Amino acid sequence: MATFIERSAVLVSTAAKLAGLQGRSDEEKILQKAKVRLVETGYDNWNGGITLYTLMLEIPLKMYSKIEGMRKEFEISIRDRIADITRTESDNSISDVVITPILFDESVEEESTDENNETETLPSFWQPGYFRLFISHSSAVKTWAHTLKKALAGFQVAAFVAHDDIEPSLEWQSEIESALRTMDALAAIITPRFSTSKWCDQEVGFALGKEKLVVPLTTEASPHGFLGKIQALKIKDLPASEVANKIVDILLKNTSSSPRMTEALVDSLVNSASWDASRRIMTVLEKVPALNQTQIARLITASEENIDVKQAFMGHSTVPERIQLLIERLSK
Q: How far is CA 260 from the centre of its chain?
């Protein structure tokens, strides 16, 4: 006989059919499209003992963006529906349901295909596993853009800065176009000379047309055109390290960029090579809005096997303890 976990897909499929028959089409679509994982999360000694599980439902990013405002309501409704289906189970219970977006890299076919359904090979200047941020800037601030790029690397963000990333032997316009097509988001350093640049406005327009997150960084000048409708980040007199922190916060809060940024942070902590790096990344990781089951498993493994994570202290607690608290908070 199949185990409770092995029957999780059948339970979800049954719940989807019931939701459809009852006119709950949005809930039906969530259950139909979800990648299903059942995770053992506790044990209750009451009434002979009941093993508690959390049902993890990972759905396409576009679908998640549409239901995010009602995510909690869907989670409760699906939990109650599954509980009714499994009410005859005497020793197993699904106590919680968690809906998260499928990570960008896991849904490349949906999110990053062109008209011919062919996925573009990532250019070599994007480091594997990093969040890909295009920095649009005028030549007047190229040195500061390079400094910002270095600061962002500490959070596993690969920043494309044309003056740094285009080799003299390559056709530079083609490289910029490739970076724009494969970026996850764009940051625009708005200076008085930004609007006079032949390329900056085109780069921003490309990002907006592709519905990518655009983060205006303002100094003395104000955003113009379509950028004027976007909340800008004021960076005048701020060190690059602080600006990098603020950019990462924005990437985590935005629905379209959060999954990729979260994955980059998880990967950075899992592969941390120092206590300082573990503490720095953990501080930012505590701001993520969601973790999928794969990420949770990787973090737990890192806290047990990576010495630079396992032995890293943060005040009166350790990084592994903070990881556990994070998982518990996001599982509620």
A: 3
